[in-house]
Amino acid sequence: MRSLLALAMLGAACGGTALNCPNDLPAACPTPAPSYRNEVAPIITSRCLKCHAPGGQEASKDFTTYANVFAQRQPILTQTYSCRMPPEGEPRPTDPERATLLAWLVCGSPDN
Amino acid sequence: MMRSTVGILAVIGIAAACSGSSGGPVAGAAETHCTLPDGGVEAQPINLASCTPTGGDAGVINYGDTRFNSEADDDDCKYHVKFANSDINQNEDVAFDVVATEKAGGAPAAGANIDIEAFLNATHPAPNSGVHTTENPPGTYRISPVRFDAPGRWTVRFHLHEDCADEAPDSPHGHVAFYIDVP
Inter-chain contact A71–B58, Cβ cutoff 8 Å? Predict the structure, then answer.
């Protein structure tokens, strides 16, 4: 009985990705594309750099420069779109911020 | 007798015509990135106590190459990962059964809470489908439902201990990616 209970607990123990994450990826790049300097960088600064900067918890994934963000655009898109990032307990992007960031990433992450 | 044989063959033919072929891992050369020049094997031990943020040097993510077939060592030679999948067709739910073992010692990689990241290219991630992971027995994971919403050659990356910082060499954090063809 005890082993059955342990098995059941083990099976239920693991988590996963956010179950209520919206399917709101833009179907195409909007015109004009969101501006990295004026719109996207401030979002990254406020939502990501607490950890993704030198000295932060995720310093190996440094988002402090455009070049670094561009190099990591694919995982940034999948992690943001699937609501894995920012992690639980950290402030989430607002809906407009999320829309701007996703649109910029779908546009190919231009340096604009 | 002849008529029933023809009937059976007709049923088999119709079934074959309707089933089509589903996608899956892409066959290719066996990967050997953890094999040393002298024929030995690189195996990075992990330490669960190293699952802490350390604030190491800044940089970018160093993912390894995407792998062929359905088993490979992870990018840092910490784990061996192999998987099986349910039928893969566009816009259908797919389940991945993943078995992970530690390269050093061969123990099941228990409690790794394997997460999945699937994308067709840098601007096309898999749709959100409420993917979740269960583990049973230790080191064996079911990840589902994963959905591929376009045909093509996708990349599926499994992340182990994703909640651990990837700074210390013996951090349990690990990742390995595979090609998946979607018809």
Answer: no
Q: In this model, does residue B15 exceed pLDDT 50?
A: no
Note which residues in 49-78 of chain B have CB less than 8 A from chain A.
Answer: 53, 55-62
Minimal CA separation from A78 to chain B, in Å: 6
| Residue B25 domain-assigned (yes or no) | no
pTM, entire model = 0.84
Q: Let me know if residue B69 belongs to a domain.
A: yes
| Residue for token pair 């060499």 | B169
Among the partner residues A55, A59, A77, nearest to B123 by beta-carbon distance: A77
Domain that holds residue B140: 31-50+64-182
- Give the count of beta carbons closer than 10 Å to the beta carbon of residue B12: 10
A3 in contact with B, Cβ within 8 Å: no
**Residue A110 Cα, gap to closest chain B Cα (Å):** 12
CATH number, domain of B89, equals 2.60.40.10
The sign of the torsion formed by the CA atoms of B166, B112, B152, B34 equals positive
Residues contacting B120, CB < 8 A, separation 6+: B126, B148, B150, B152, B153, B154, B155
Q: Could you tell me if residue B21 is inside a domain?
A: no
Residue range A39-53, pLDDT digits in tens? 999 999 999 999 899
pLDDT attached to residue A3: 43
Per-residue confidence (pLDDT) for residue B58, from 0 to 100: 61
| Range from A74-88, A91-105, B11-25, B99-113 carrying the lowest mean pLDDT | B11-25
